[in-house]
Amino acid sequence: MAGIKSIFGGEIRSYTEMLNKNRKLAIERMTQDANQLSADAIVGMRMISGSVLQGTSEIIAFGTAVKVVGEE
What we know:
Elements: H1 2-8, H2 13-36, E1 41-50, E2 58-66
Antiparallel strand pairs: 1-2
């Protein structure tokens, strides 16, 4: 069915849902990595996606983990 929709156009909802779920997962993993570094925030966060093989894609989330330093 996805092949037919790709020819005639239209949203493939299951694919869209899978991408949204995987974007959230990429952000969660990046946040976990920042927490392990005792970071207070992530700045300059970006996401990229691309096709690895026909019918597959990858999602990468990245940014700079920062620690806030100041007077207390």
